[in-house]
C-alpha cells in the first residue's frame, strides 16, 4: 500500500520547491514513486524539468462534455482510466500526473466520483505518492485521494506564516479529512531567525520536522527558470531535505 504524502503551503513559501527536492531524494532509493501536481498553478513540472502540458483537468472537461453523448452501456470509468494513463509522464525515477483545472463551467461531481475510484486503484502500483497540493486542501475535502499519511505544511520563518500552518491544521480537523500526521517545514531559514522559528512552532504546538536554509543555488535557478531537480548534493537545501525525508520514513 502506497505511503501518501501531501505538501501544502501559501504561495511564495517554497512549497513546490520543497516537493521537488523530496521527489529528488526519493529517486535515489528503490521506491516506485508517483508525483502529483494538484496545484492549479501547475509549477511542479517546471521545477522537475518536465515540459508536460497534459492535465487531468483536460480529461475531466472532456468527460463532462461527453457524458450524455457516450453510449449508455459503455464503461465510462474505463474510458477515464485509459485517458489518465495516456497523460501519465514516465520520468527517470518517478511518474508524474498533473491535475490542472477544467476550464468549462458546471459541476464536475460526476467526473470526480469516477476519478476518485481510479486514483485509489492507481496508487496501489506505487510505494510512495507525493502530492504538491494547493493550500485550500480542495482535493482532500472531495476525497479524490484516499487516506493521507503525512500532510506537510511549508511555511516561511515569520510568525504569520506559522499561524497559517496552525490554521491549515484546524481546517484539516474541521473537514474531518483522513490525515494521519501533520508536520511543518520552515523554509528560507537564516541563522537570525532559526531559534525564533523553533520556539514559535513549539508555542503553537506544531511539529517542526525541518528548517531549510536560504540556498543561493535555488535563488539562482529560480531567476534563470532552471529546474531544481538536478541540484548538486552539496546544496544546503538538498542536505536538509535529505534529513526531512528520513524523518518521514522515506
UniProtKB/TrEMBL annotation:
Domain of life: Archaea
CDD domains: CooC1
Annotated GO biological process: negative regulation of cell division
GO molecular function (one): ATP binding
Pfam families: CbiA
Coiled coil: none
Domain CobQ/CobB/MinD/ParA nucleotide binding residue range list: 4-227
Keyword field: ATP-binding, Nucleotide-binding
GO cellular component, as recorded: cytoplasmic side of plasma membrane; cytosol
PANTHER family for this protein: CARBON-MONOXIDE DEHYDROGENASE ACCESSORY PROTEIN, SEPTUM SITE-DETERMINING PROTEIN MIND HOMOLOG, CHLOROPLASTIC-RELATED
Protein name as annotated: CO dehydrogenase maturation factor
Species whose genome carries this gene: Methanolobus tindarius DSM 2278
Lineage of source species: Archaea, Methanobacteriati, Methanobacteriota, Stenosarchaea group, Methanomicrobia
